[in-house]
Predict the 3D structure of the following.
Amino acid sequence: MDFLGKTVVLGLSITCLGVVGNSQTAKASTVKVIQYKNLKAAQYKVVKDAKGYLYKTATLKTKVHSIKSYSKTKFAVSKEAIVRQHNGKKAVYYQVKSSKVSGWFWHGYLVKVASKKPTMTQTAAQQQQITNLQQQISDLKQQLSDLKTQNSNSTTTTPVSTSTDVSAQIASLQNQLNTLKSVGTASVSKSTTMGSTGDDTTNPDDIAKMATTDDVFNGTPTEYYVENGDTIYLYPDNHGDGYPTIIGNNDGLHSSDYLKTLQTYSETSTNNYGTFWLTGGYVPVEYKGQKGYVDPGHISIVPVNKPFYQLGNRPDDAGYGNVAPTDTKVKFTNSLVDGATWTQYSKDVKNGNTIRWYYNATTKTWKN
């Protein structure tokens, strides 16, 4: 084959390789979420010898860590996402949360943690609460150890929580645990009544009465914005087993009973993986004087009364917060593409509680 022929063949080969590479990139970016679904909250752990990754979102665009990093971690799971993969097949991913990290795992990598059988002096609900508190204390002790190590190494990262704060949280949870263990035969089932059909039901009017017995409501609440897209249920217990009452309908932005904010009795913490709720189950809240628990997936980490923002991790996702992207407090560290979005939470919005901002890369300006 002459030189010209070889050149043509080589050029075609390179072109074909380029097409294949582009096709693979396109496929990898076409994972779409078909449906989100709330699950009954439960604890899960990683199955032995699992090989995969924790993803930041259900669209699987950003890997957080190898699953091997979490072989001994227990996760709270209360939501799943059904996604359509690039090959057209459907897959189910679970949203996992611990005191240190949150993200999405393929459901096949997880197995439910078996609950301990209740003793003769404890109901199943009490035993579950004890287990949850023990896990929270264990996670906080690890966080306390990490903070002490961080301070001794004089790293540049400033911890959001101090060791004193975490120690106080551990002491509070330990008091709750000791109180719960001492209750013994005091049955949580007293809060329910058996109907004529044999179903366990709870009077919604009793939810606040039941919830206010928990020590977690002794503090001062902080107002946070609620997320869009779901009906908001208020439960009498922190794992969503009791009969709830509806306090907001956020399925549509124009809903007359759209709930914009909630007063919460839990705190958030931030590490290298993001900001998350410091709670071992549902978030304790107050709504119009009524106290109870709400699925953490329904409450944003954006407070109402103090400036807050978090930058996005993609060129088209600038981030979100309770301030506009034009605010002098917001400092973008990475370049943004034309059309990049910013979500601003606000109580002043007529419909819903968010304002959508769009970036013009040419003029370097924002418009909503």
